[in-house]
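User: Please fill in residues for this 236-position structure.
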């Protein structure tokens, strides 16, 4: 409420709906967008791109992160790649992806690359922080590999993995929607933002931004709640 009040006061001071629409204008635009026939399809297509890129990146980051955490040679090979991906501007990745891929796949590819270093870095950190004494004891008592994985590796890795996934969830929608704004695929929140900007319809631009914020907040909340349903979490 405080932020909305500040927004209202600033919009009154600016006095221009094109530069900064009032909260009521933005929410009216949001309600109008929700009532439009293609709104749900637009949101679902953006969700599909984001979830696809996120899951593919998380799976790859988990496998490669565990390998890099366990094997120093793999880590040395992977580290320069992670550094490059983290330092390359997202805009450069989007522009290259537009050349290489179809507009529908650009947001998925961009999401994959942006999320990968976040999750893999946390996985590597989690593997490296496993108590070596526990592994030594497991080796001495000849504990099976399955038990080592489920009773040592996973409980140690879960906090780092959840932290990485939670951070990556917020970044996912920034990357996906930014890629959509530039590549402009059909049925996309980013495409809606681009059209609103071209038409100088700032209220619609704010409305789409609110939708993006809601999606990001919900996805992060789901990942945060997920930890309470994990058996390793309840045992701690």
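Assistant: Residues filled in for all 236 positions:
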């Amino acid at each position: 409420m405080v932020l909305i009040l500040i927004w209202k006061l600033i919009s009154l001071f600016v006095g221009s709906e094109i530069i900064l629409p009032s909260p009521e204008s933005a929410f009216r635009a949001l309600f109008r967008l929700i009532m439009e026939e293609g709104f749900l399809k637009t949101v679902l297509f953006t969700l599909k791109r984001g979830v696809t890129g996120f899951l593919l990146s998380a799976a790859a980051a988990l496998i490669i992160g565990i390998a890099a955490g366990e094997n120093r040679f793999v880590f040395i090979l992977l580290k320069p790649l992670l550094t490059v991906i983290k330092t390359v501007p997202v805009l450069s990745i989007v522009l290259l992806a537009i050349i290489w891929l179809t507009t529908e796949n650009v947001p998925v590819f961009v999401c994959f690359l942006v999320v990968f270093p976040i999750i893999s870095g946390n996985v590597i950190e989690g593997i490296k922080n496993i108590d070596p004494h526990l592994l030594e004891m497991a080796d001495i008592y000849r504990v099976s590999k399955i038990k080592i994985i489920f009773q040592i590796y996973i409980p140690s890795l879960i906090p780092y993995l959840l932290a990485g996934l939670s951070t990556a969830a917020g970044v996912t929608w920034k990357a996906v929607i930014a890629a959509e704004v530039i590549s402009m695929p059909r049925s996309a929140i980013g495409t809606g933002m681009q059209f609103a900007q071209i038409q100088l319809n700032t209220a619609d631009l704010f409305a789409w931004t609110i939708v993006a914020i809601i999606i990001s907040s919900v996805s992060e909340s789901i990942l945060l709640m997920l930890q309470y349903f994990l058996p390793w979490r309840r045992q701690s």
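For context: The chain is about 85% helix and 0% strand.
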